[in-house]
Design a protein that fits this description.
alpha/beta, 8-stranded mixed beta sheet, 5-stranded mixed beta sheet, 17 strands, about 35% helix
């Protein structure tokens, strides 16, 4: 199943002011157009080499962090040399400069920021801790994403994305799962982000968050009806369940030995196709599928174990 393989997605950005708000940064200088300033790169940089004059591999899109090492280096320079080096850094026009560990602010760095209109901030958090937190925040905020028609639920700790034609019963199955103690993340539209090289995370667009559409009833607020424990804002996608109308001419996997995957944003996600027809309890089937998927990740595959028993039985009978 490669229906997502050729999907295109936009590059995203995050407002500089949003980072200031998220990390409660102290503002030392902001240009007049700060509301239009955005960050489009999830990587950050500690400009040790640039301050020494090496700019060959300098990425102008990265936020620059001035930590204790950079601060100590600058403090050993004369005022004229310090201004020269900081202006060379400022001339590259990075999106922002952040001083960590509540270090004192050199007049020269403030002067360079004003001259080249570079936002300048300060935090009392240590460099390593702030750098890791900032990268994590930017990675999620700038993650590649697509929005797809489906339902995302958490079942026994597994993020299950249900796909299928409109009217197949995805929303009704989600409500039944919520009644059985599981949690809803998104109904109808699922925003999928690739937040790392191994992980996809799904969430609901803000306008339909915690809402479910049931034909014949209308829009239902799951959070208000079932309580806060019935919903969740985000969840990683561990498996995909594709619901389709039962086709008597189609052969479905009865052993579970076949491994099917769907490629989303470059990652292969385990996929199970479940045929739908009257009398099948989809909620129970999805619970079993989620537990079985979790069991496989823990190293036990029931289908393989059953197949081994059959092979051993055949060998014993022959002998």
């Amino acid at each position: 199943m490669d229906e997502f393989l050729n999907e295109s997605y936009e590059e995203y950005s995050v407002a500089t002011r949003e980072i200031v708000k998220e990390f409660k940064l102290e503002t030392l200088f902001e240009p007049e157009d700060i509301l239009n300033r955005v960050i489009s790169c999830a990587d950050v940089n500690r400009p040790g080499l640039p301050l020494s004059g090496f700019f060959d591999c300098f990425d102008k899109r990265r936020i620059q962090l001035i930590g204790r090492a950079e601060h100590q280096y600058l403090s050993q320079l004369s005022s004229e040399d310090r201004l020269y080096r900081l202006e060379k850094l400022g001339a590259q026009k990075p999106p922002a400069i952040i001083i960590t560990s509540a270090l004192p602010v050199f007049d020269e760095i403030l002067s360079a920021s004003i001259k080249y209109k570079i936002p300048l901030y300060r935090t009392d958090v240590t460099t390593s801790r702030f750098q890791s937190a900032l990268i994590a925040f930017l990675t999620v905020s700038l993650a590649p994403r697509i929005t797809r028609h489906g339902v995302l639920v958490e079942v026994y700790g597994e993020g299950v994305l249900m796909l299928g034609d409109s009217g197949i019963g995805k929303s009704e199955t989600a409500i039944e799962l919520v009644k059985r103690g599981h949690r809803l993340i998104a109904d109808d539209a699922v925003e999928i982000k690739r937040v790392s090289e191994k992980t996809l995370v799904g969430s609901a667009p803000p306008i339909i968050k915690h809402f479910v559409e049931l034909r014949g009833i209308g829009i239902v607020d799951v959070r208000r009806i079932f309580g806060m424990g019935a919903v969740k804002d985000t969840e990683k996608i561990d498996m995909i369940i594709k619901l389709e109308q039962w086709d008597k001419n189609k052969t479905y996997d009865r052993m579970g030995l076949e491994t099917e995957t769907t490629t989303i944003l470059g990652l292969d996600i385990t996929t199970t196709t479940i045929p739908v027809r009257p009398g099948r309890n989809l909620a129970i089937i999805i619970e079993i599928a989620a537990m079985n998927n979790r069991q496989k990740k823990m190293g036990y595959n029931t289908a393989e174990e059953f197949n081994k028993r059959i092979e051993e039985s055949i060998k014993n009978n022959k002998s």
